[in-house]
């Protein structure tokens, strides 16, 4: 496996500070944003990340309302397995 492929497979999660920073740096670099554009994009992306967090939280709450206590524990375990280490 090439180092580039390895890097793409092990990028920080989108909703972490490191993930946000890496994503914005890539956008800024690849689009060659002006300082004004970079500032506007940062604001837009911050709104997107806030929206993403609300959707994830709301969805998780709704899923947990459907499950039994035993199923919620299993669901929590499944979610923890997907967390970056």
Number of strands: 0
| Number of DSSP helical runs | 4
Q: Strand count, sense and closure of the main sheet?
A: none
- Listing every helix as H and every strand as E from the N terminus to the C terminus, the arrangement reads HHHH
Mean pLDDT: 85
Folded structure, characterized:
The structure is a single chain. It contains four helices and no strands. With about 80 residues, it is mostly helical. It has one domain. The longest helix has about 30 residues. The chain is elongated.
List keywords for this structure.
single chain, 85 residues, mainly alpha, 4 helices, elongated
Q: How would you briefly describe this protein structure?
A:
By secondary structure, this protein is mainly α.
Give the secondary structure arrangement, pairings included:
Elements: H1 3-9, H2 17-31, H3 35-66, H4 69-81
